[in-house]
Amino acid sequence: MHRHGSYERYEQPTGDEKFTIQRFLCPPCGHTVSVLLANRLTYRPLKVEQLQAHFDGQAEVSSGLDPPPDAITAGCLQRAWNRFLTRVEVLRTAFGQILPAVIATPQHLWQQLRQCVGTAERMLAFLAQHGKRSLLGDYACLRPAP
Fold first, then answer.
1. Cβ–Cβ < 8 Å for 55, 65
2. Distance (Å, whole) CA 6 – CA 82
């Protein structure tokens, strides 16, 4: 792999700040690869810690984000939670025997993921290594860092 430039991405949903994503080129196959930091989500301007705190609040694992997010960030977090609600069966299957056999609700799934896997960052790493998945979508571009 050779460094092949970079591009900028929004740091937060408000779009006030940006950060740089490095790109790499694989000379034999001609594909380019973007490398996200471990604390970033694919296709979303949120940090994993924000997502985890919001999901913890939704599943009553904790009180959620403190301080509460601004309106734009709150909307982005709520859209992420709504997407998570549609992926219960996919995620339950992806984590397999790590989780209990019976998952009653999306909130219960999140509670069990936090208990059995730990942090959202660890969940994302597991999903990337086992099927190019994420908490919020299945992406052909998703691969774990070498």
1. no
2. 31
Confidence of residue 143 (pLDDT cuts 50, 70, 90): low
pLDDT in tens, 37-68: 888 888 889 999 999 999 999 999 987 778 88
Task: Give pTM, 2 decimals.
Answer: 0.85
Structure tokens belonging to residue 95: 């984590």
In sequence order, which residues have a C-beta less than 8 Å from that of residue 46 and are 6 or more positions away? 12, 13, 73, 76, 77, 80
Residues pairing with 19 in the sheet: 9
Residues 6+ apart with CB under 8 A from 73: 12, 13, 14, 46, 50
Higher pLDDT, 128 or 114: 114
Q: Where are the domains of the chain?
A: 1-35, 46-138
Residue pointed to by tokens 């977090």: 77
Beta bridge partners of 10: 18
* Cα–Cα dist 123/101, whole Å: 18
| Buried/exposed code over 21-58 (b: 16+ C-beta within 10 A; e: otherwise) | eebeeeeeeeeeeeebeeebbeebbbbbebbbbbbbbb
